[in-house]
Design goal:
Pfam families: DUF3145 (PF11343)
Organism: Pseudonocardia oceani
Largest sheet: 8 strands, mixed
InterPro entries: DUF3145
Protein name: DUF3145 domain-containing protein
């Protein structure tokens, strides 16, 4: 089952950019060359984005590969496919990697078992903070200035070699 998604590298040091391309190439099995542009939110950093096609689960594999460079800020999305939920992965240096399931319109979905666990293990004062953790609120807040700085940036299209 083929899936598709988007990789947003919101900020990367110049020296790490080739490693990002190699990591994505390794997951998708095809040479990746991204179009890097300056990241206006952080001087001296670059940004790139690309769409990808590959087997279901490739989004997680890409995020796992990019996680090797802890200084990166990135997001990887994978759209839902029949029988497989969509996912979004976010990485921020001081927060680490977060992932969440997504609905067809891109909303984060908090599953019943997650809510039951939260209610069973949290006090009423802890629930709001833990809900924010499940929704990835801290990652969204940290990445939003980088997302805005990328508006209108070029997108590269990638396809896995079959």
């Amino acid at each position: 089952m083929n899936a598709r998604g988007v990789v947003f590298v919101h900020s990367s040091p110049t020296a790490v950019c080739p490693h990002v391309e190699w990591a994505i190439s390794g997951v998708l099995g095809t040479k990746v060359s991204l179009h890097w542009t300056p990241q206006a939110a952080v001087q001296g950093q670059l940004r790139a984005e690309c769409t990808w096609n590959g087997p279901a689960g490739s989004g997680g594999a890409i995020a796992g590969a990019l996680r090797a460079w802890s200084m990166l800020r990135f997001e990887v999305t994978e759209e839902p496919t029949p029988g497989v939920d969509g996912e979004r992965f976010c990485h921020v240096p001081n927060l680490g990697l977060w992932s969440g399931r997504t609905s067809a319109n891109g909303d984060i979905v908090v599953a019943e078992d997650q809510l039951r666990h939260l209610m069973a293990t949290s006090t009423s004062t802890q629930i709001p903070g833990r809900l924010h953790d499940l929704l990835g609120s801290a990652w969204d807040e940290a990445l939003e200035p980088f997302r805005l700085a990328g508006d209108g940036a070029p997108v590269t299209w990638l396809h896995q070699v079959g």
